[in-house]
Design brief:
By secondary structure, the protein is of the alpha/beta class. Helix content is 41%, strand content 14%.
Length: 340
């Protein structure tokens, strides 16, 4: 009887330890926001790395305008061709920049040193045409230059208005080759499905590729931008406008929590940005780089809070834009959005 009591106590202790361990494991996944919503913006400003203030945040729709203006502008002296690449880091919230600001191989800091790093915002204009701070509506705003009331996408799982054109389609219509590379299936299966079908049916020089993961996306984009001496590439192998997304940070955010309280999120920020750096250095190593006028943009679609996003908190709405060229903080740019 005594032995049975000892065994019971020992078993209970083991059970308690197991439950405690399970609780600790569960705590590694942060389902609540640990930062203060009222001081978050000032924390971001305190990093001292932005070339604008939160009050002067640009709408993320500005990216469409910047890319179109780049291709429409005259070539600088000594340049013979326009090129642009838009690196999309999914779910890379503002305080994630803390993880890369001192990295030697940071793509964000490298190109912002040439142009600038600017505050932007996701989720539409507060109180006017708000939309979910989710993946599909956010990238759609950047690619089309308008919010949901323009392109028809206010949340995930929707197909864009086929009459609304992305900057990729507009550029392809001028005869230049463009590419869209992603590993998130909804982009190609749902959101941009009309664009893909139209490009195939009309012979538009636009290539949409779905990759199995970020590593595959990375190698696909490297193959686009690499151009060693003597290499002969077709227009589609060497696109003039490139857009792709890395999912590192969004996956880590949903798995363990958005924000720097999680090692997985910190590492995802660093990995995505170091891969972006390698892509940019590969561009600079092109045998034809000296004759090319490159616009390089890096941005994110949304932030996050806890392990989710979609709402209108500053953790989700506040985003950023790095560019190798200076962006004017004019009223026109601060209020830009195409409308029907």
């Amino acid at each position: 009887m005594k032995k049975k009591k000892v065994w019971f106590r020992f078993g209970a202790a083991v059970l308690a330890a197991v439950l405690c361990f399970g609780t600790l494991c569960a705590c590694s996944k942060t389902d609540r926001e640990i930062k203060d919503e009222d001081t978050y913006a000032s924390e971001i400003e305190a990093m001292g790395i932005f070339d604008s203030t939160v009050a002067d945040a640009l709408p993320q729709t500005i990216i469409h305008k910047l890319i179109m203006e780049h291709f429409e502008a005259p070539l600088p002296e000594g340049k013979t061709v326009k090129k642009a690449i838009f690196l999309g880091y999914d779910g890379f919230r503002d305080d994630g920049l803390e993880n890369i600001k001192d990295m030697e191989d940071s793509a964000i800091m490298y190109i912002s040193g040439q142009g600038g790093l600017y505050h932007t915002f996701s989720g539409g204009v507060a109180g006017v045409n708000e939309q979910a701070t989710s993946t599909a509506p956010s990238w759609m705003a950047m690619l089309t230059g308008g919010w949901a009331d323009y392109n028809g996408i206010d949340d995930n799982g929707q197909t864009k208005d086929p009459d609304v054109k992305t900057f990729l389609t507009k550029i392809a219509e001028t005869g230049r080759a463009v590419s869209f590379t992603t590993s998130w299936r909804e982009h190609t299966a749902t959101s941009y499905q009309p664009d893909i079908v139209s490009a195939i049916e009309t012979g538009l020089p636009a290539e949409y590729t779905h990759q199995i993961d970020d590593a595959a996306t990375y190698y696909q984009v490297l193959s686009y931008v690499a151009k060693p001496q003597g290499a002969e590439k077709t227009a589609q192998e060497d696109p003039d406008a490139i857009f792709f997304t890395f999912e590192h940070t969004d996956h880590a955010g949903h798995d363990t929590g958005f924000g720097n309280q999680n090692e997985a999120y910190i590492e995802a920020c660093r990995t995505a940005d170091s891969w972006g750096y390698e892509i940019i250095k590969t561009i600079e190593a092109r045998s034809t780089y000296a004759q090319e006028d490159w616009l390089i943009i890096i941005s994110t679609d949304h932030g996050g809070t806890g392990t989710s996003h979609g709402g209108q908190t500053p953790f989700e709405r506040m985003t950023w834009l790095a560019c190798n060229k200076t962006v004017e903080l004019s009223e026109e740019n601060k209020t830009f959005a195409l409308t029907k």
